[in-house]
């Protein structure tokens, strides 16, 4: 009896060991970063505190963070920021996907192209001055937050909706939404459905592991309808199921549906996307929690594209605008003002980071049109500049 | 001189650094120490990482809203993770138990067919078994989902109908089923089985006493059926059959495409393994037993049913039990086609903010319980069947 107990326990212990070893392999490589980041969370928050007080007087003192020795040991730990690590490494590890036309796909030459991919380049241009210094990491939907936490990626630019619980529980800090999206419903043109109200008891297919599934159920409940939500591993499998006739409807973010509709094998006309938008989906880049300096650097890289569009600076005009008559444009691009000085906002970025972003990647409008027009998203909608009735608004650069 | 040397050697024990027993103990302690140190290091790494990222390590997530609905169930996203796992558990059990029953039946048929005297039957069974047994299960599951159910099954308006009993199309299957409370169905089945069992015992007793053929099947089956129908009527159970209505199928029990595909692949895979066990067990029965049956002029069926299979089963039960365990664990692979069983649900809760280490630890614990429960049942059955030696 005792012997059999040992026999049953031995494989158990072995399994436990194996599990632990696997954990180590996954966490081991990350071990270096998070443990140092562990010391960082406390110091970073205090440093962030002193950073904000310093920011007020910063415009006068100029390059305060560039000369940390003045504050000595106090400022020292901020050197553990991902910002320094990225600059030392010389490349940005950017978490993206490889299967979403318009946002992030791989072209024939093997490069990542698309709206999200371009924002990775924006970050690289701002932080490193070289838009090509991006290492794209394709992360699965359910692996994206763990990848961020483990340090496998520096920044997540992957069609990710900013929600309170992801902000709070997933150890991620969301920055400025690059794309304001909303969930919609797509059906076959010959389905006979005119609106969601006709779809009682329908089978709606969605990609798993997202906010999408819950939104569909909530929307049908709100309308007093029943629904059977079928989820699939990824959006390609949803499309296969939809084509095979397993689904009555296909729900996802409007941008994704438009992208799928544009490339649908039976032609875009065989599908209809309903007008109703039944969720807010601000697609937002995210970085790891507790690293204020890195978060600010990435955030201002994104703002630079929006501010550039507002100023009317394009990829082609950036060079000429360096000597613009408008001092705020010159200051934004990192040119010298009348006194012969440049503004260092103390973000840990080069003074001309905005120039690098615009001249190498383009302004927000250019990035939008370059990538999204071809997949059928021609209306800017909520993504227009604030001055044109949209939501894209950058804080002043001064 | 020849006596002195052995005396010296045996007189005292060798010094500790050369004593095999001491060294043995030290080595064992060392191994245990290293293992414990590695585990402690991993655990402290885990604690440091989680606390630096403010990630929870407790099981409070079980009470959080899950954030996703579960396909083909009443489960909604505002219900807690705990209840999502219960749904996943039910789906795992449903897949595993149905799979075990079907794989056993198909496996025995295939195993017997492997030994058939008919060349076509024998080769067909062999081809199937050798093919399915030697490919990865996950490939079979993907083939069943994307190739067979999605690719071969007809669209809803051209559904395959098996009489009024089953409807199959690309959206899954609806099969005739009982209508009414579950306990009523269980009571009906249990009372029918009990009736059959009592009749079998009675016939055996008569046969032992009088020497006439027992004919258990002839007596037990009709009576069990009669009891089933009677209890069914008394309890007010109904029968629901599938009816095609445009794009939809109403009535019967619904199997989603993912369930159907997973069941198909798991049953095919496990039955091919069971078939080999059955074939091996039958061949393990001494040749003389079959020859003895022939000498008694038993029919082919009687020979198999009364002489060969009872002995083969004793040999085959433990490995077949292993296959049951494998099937229940392999059911987790249905996650790749998004069948909402335990693994898939855990993946979903982790994607929806549950902490991964506690969530997967819990998942492993649940599978462990399922496996231990199954092996308990198999061991009990094995103990009953084992030859009692005197």
Summarize the structure in short:
Chain A has helices at residues 2-61, 82-89, 115-128, 144-150, 164-169, 212-222, 235-244, 254-262, 292-311, 318-321, 327-333, 353-360, 364-372; strands spanning 92-96, 99-100, 104-106, 112-113, 134-138, 155-156, 172-174, 179-188, 202-207, 227-232, 249-253, 271-273, 280-283, 286-288.
Explain this structure to me?
- The complex is a heterodimer of chains A (398) and B (390).
- Chain A has 13 helices and 14 strands.
- With 398 residues, chain A is of the alpha/beta class.
- Chain A has a domain at 184-273: Periplasmic binding protein-like II (D-Maltodextrin-Binding Protein, domain 2, 3-Layer(aba) Sandwich).
- In chain A, the strands form 4 sheets. In chain A, strands 8, 9, 10, 11, 12 and 13 form a 6-stranded mixed sheet that branches. In chain A, strands 5-1-6 form a 3-stranded parallel sheet. Chain A has a 3-stranded antiparallel sheet with strand order 2-3-4.
- The longest helix of chain A is centred in the first third of the chain and has 60 residues, at 2-61.
- Mean pLDDT of chain A is 81; it is low at 1-78.
- With 390 residues, chain B is α+β, with helices and mostly antiparallel strands.
- Chain B folds into 2 domains: 20-54; 81-176 and 241-385, MetI-like fold (Orthogonal Bundle).
- Chain B has 12 helices and 8 strands.
- Chain B has a 4-stranded antiparallel sheet. In chain B, strands 4-5 form a two-stranded antiparallel ribbon. Chain B has a two-stranded antiparallel sheet with strand order 6-7.
- The radius of gyration of chain B is 28 Å and the shape is globular.
Short key terms for the protein model shown above:
heterodimer; A: 398 residues; alpha/beta; six-stranded mixed β-sheet; three-stranded parallel β-sheet; disordered N terminus; B: alpha+beta; MetI-like fold; 2 domains; four-stranded antiparallel β-sheet; two-stranded antiparallel ribbon; 12 helices; 8 strands
């Amino acid at each position: 009896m005792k012997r059999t107990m040992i026999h049953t326990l031995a494989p158990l212990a072995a399994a436990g060991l194996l599990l632990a070893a696997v954990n180590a392999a996954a966490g081991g490589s990350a071990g270096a970063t998070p443990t140092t980041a562990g010391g960082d969370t406390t110091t970073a928050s205090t440093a962030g505190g002193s950073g904000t007080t310093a920011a007020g007087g910063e415009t006068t003192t100029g390059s305060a963070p560039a000369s940390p020795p003045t504050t000595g040991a106090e400022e020292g730990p901020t050197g553990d920021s991902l910002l320094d690590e990225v600059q030392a490494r010389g490349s940005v590890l950017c978490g993206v996907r490889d299967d979403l036309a318009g946002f992030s796909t791989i072209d024939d030459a093997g490069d990542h192209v698309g709206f999200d991919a371009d924002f990775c380049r924006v970050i690289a241009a701002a932080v490193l001055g070289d838009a090509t210094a991006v290492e794209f990491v394709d992360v699965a939907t359910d692996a994206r937050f763990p990848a961020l936490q483990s340090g496998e990626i520096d920044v997540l630019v992957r069609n990710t909706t900013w929600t309170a619980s992801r902000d709070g529980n997933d150890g991620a800090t969301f920055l400025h939404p690059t794309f304001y999206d909303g969930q919609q419903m797509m059906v076959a043109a010959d389905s006979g459905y005119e609106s969601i109200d006709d779809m009682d008891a329908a089978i709606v297919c969605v990609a798993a592991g997202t906010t999408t599934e819950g939104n569909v159920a909530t929307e049908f409940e709100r309308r007093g309808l029943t629904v059977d939500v079928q989820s699939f591993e990824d959006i390609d499998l949803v499309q296969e199921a939809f084509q095979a006739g397993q689904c009555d409807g296909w729900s996802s973010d409007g941008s994704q549906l438009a992208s799928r509709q544009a490339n649908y094998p039976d032609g875009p006309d065989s599908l209809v996307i309903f007008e109703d938008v039944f969720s807010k989906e601000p697609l937002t880049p995210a970085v790891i929690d507790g690293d204020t300096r890195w978060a600010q650097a990435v955030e201002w890289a994104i703002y630079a594209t929006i501010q550039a569009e507002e100023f009317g600076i394009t990829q082609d005009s950036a060079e000429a605008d360096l000597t613009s008559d408008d001092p705020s444009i010159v200051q934004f691009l990192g040119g010298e003002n009348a006194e012969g000085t440049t503004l260092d906002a103390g973000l840990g970025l080069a003074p001309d980071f905005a120039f690098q972003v615009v001249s190498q990647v383009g302004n927000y409008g250019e990035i939008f049109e370059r990538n999204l027009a071809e997949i059928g998203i021609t209306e800017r909608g909520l993504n227009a500049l604030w001055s044109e009735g949209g939501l894209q608004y950058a804080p002043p650069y001064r | 001189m020849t006596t002195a040397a052995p005396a010296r050697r045996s007189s005292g024990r060798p010094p500790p650094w050369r004593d095999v027993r001491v060294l043995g103990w030290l080595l064992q302690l060392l191994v245990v120490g290293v293992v414990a140190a590695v585990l402690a290091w991993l655990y402290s790494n885990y604690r440091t990482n989680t606390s630096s990222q403010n990630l929870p390590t407790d099981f409070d997530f079980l009470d959080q809203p899950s954030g996703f609905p579960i396909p083909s169930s009443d489960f909604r996203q505002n219900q807690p993770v705990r209840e999502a796992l219960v749904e996943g558990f039910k789906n795992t059990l449903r897949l595993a138990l149905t799979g075990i029953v079907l794989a056993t039946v198909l496996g025995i048929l295939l195993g017997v067919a492997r030994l058939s005297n008919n060349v076509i039957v024998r080769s067909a069974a062999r081809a199937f078994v050798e093919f399915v047994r030697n490919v990865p299960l996950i490939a079979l599951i993907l083939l069943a989902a994307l190739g067979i159910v999605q690719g071969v099954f007809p669209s809803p308006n051209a559904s395959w109908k098996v009489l009024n009993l089953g409807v199959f199309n690309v959206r899954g299957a609806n099969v005739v089923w009982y209508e009414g409370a579950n306990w009523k169905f269980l009571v009906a089945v249990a009372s029918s089985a009990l009736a059959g069992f009592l009749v079998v015992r009675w016939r055996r007793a008569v046969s032992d006493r009088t020497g006439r053929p027992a004919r258990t099947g002839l007596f037990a089956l009709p009576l069990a059926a009669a009891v089933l129908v009677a209890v069914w009527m008394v309890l007010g159970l109904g029968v629901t059959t599938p009816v095609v209505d445009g794009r939809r199928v109403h009535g019967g029990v619904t199997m989603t495409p993912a369930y159907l595909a997973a069941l198909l692949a798991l049953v095919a895979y496990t039955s091919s393994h069971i078939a080999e066990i059955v074939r091996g067990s039958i061949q393990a029965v001494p040749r003389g037993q079959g020859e003895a049956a022939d000498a008694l002029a038993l029919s082919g069926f009687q020979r198999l049913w009364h002489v060969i299979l009872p002995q083969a089963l004793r040999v085959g039960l433990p490995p077949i039990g292993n296959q049951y365990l494998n099937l229940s664990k392999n059911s987790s692979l249905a996650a790749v086609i998004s069948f909402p069983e335990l693994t898939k649900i855990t993946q979903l809760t982790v994607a929806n903010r549950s902490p991964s280490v506690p969530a997967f630890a819990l998942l492993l614990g649940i599978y462990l319980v399922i496996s231990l429960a199954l092996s308990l049942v198999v061991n009990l059955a094995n103990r009953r069947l084992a030859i009692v030696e005197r």
